[in-house]
Amino acid sequence: MEQTKGGPDRRIGRRALIIGGAAAAVGTGALLARDELSRMWWQVPGVDKPRVEGAVDYTGARWVAASSANWRRADRPADYTVDMVIVHVTQGSFDSAVQVFQDPGHGAASHYIVRDDGHITQMIRELDVAYHAGNREYNERSVGIEHAGFVDRPQDFTDAMYAASARLTAGICARYGIPVDREHIIGHVEVPGTDHTDPGEHWDWDRYMRLVRRAGTGSTPA
Ligand SMILES: [Zn+2]
């Protein structure tokens, strides 16, 4: 606590403070603007984020819109913290997954679908809440990635699919500051209350996590 208020030294101090204060006010404004500029626009709460028709969040993904019945408009990560990636397997072909996510009667869809050749289709913006986890809280906090294939067909999980999906997940983790670990990159089967088993026992988590880490650091995956 300051004990010596009002003395001669204090008056000088106050004048200096007032002069300094005017300069500080200008400086604060400039600092604030610079601070805002240095933040990525989508991290600033309350900003009505611009949306461009057909825009994707991951370079290289192709946009195909899911039915609006299969997701909810949001403003993530301003309204919900995104701290998870959830890995799925479609239990069907790539084309059938794209088709059902466009069907308003399906009631579910993920943000991305990865094909066996490494092609990635984005169907829901990361801003928005996709209905993929069967758990409201987990939907709100996660990005969902489907992998075309069947849980009991390990041959469906190709090298190209692992590599493409790992790059996608590494990008998501970098965008939202998500730790690259199995607490934050989980399978649908690990979502509380789910009766889904995907991605199943043949999904190679050790390999996948290694690829995600390497994609995140920019070094070449082995
Ligand atoms: Zn699933």
TrEMBL record:
Q: One Pfam family for this entry, by name?
A: Amidase_2
What GO terms are given for molecular function? Answer: N-acetylmuramoyl-L-alanine amidase activity
Q: Which InterPro entries match?
A: Amidase/PGRP_sf (IPR036505), Amidase_domain (IPR002502), NAMLAA_amidase_2 (IPR051206)
The organism's place on the tree of life at top rank: Bacteria
Biological process terms in GO annotation:
cell wall organization; peptidoglycan catabolic process; peptidoglycan turnover
Known catalytic reactions:
Hydrolyzes the link between N-acetylmuramoyl residues and L-amino acid residues in certain cell-wall glycopeptides
Domain N-acetylmuramoyl-L-alanine amidase intervals: 71-200
| Protein name in the entry | N-acetylmuramoyl-L-alanine amidase
Q: Which organism is it from?
A: Streptomyces chromofuscus
Lineage, opening ranks: Bacteria, Bacillati, Actinomycetota, Actinomycetes, Kitasatosporales
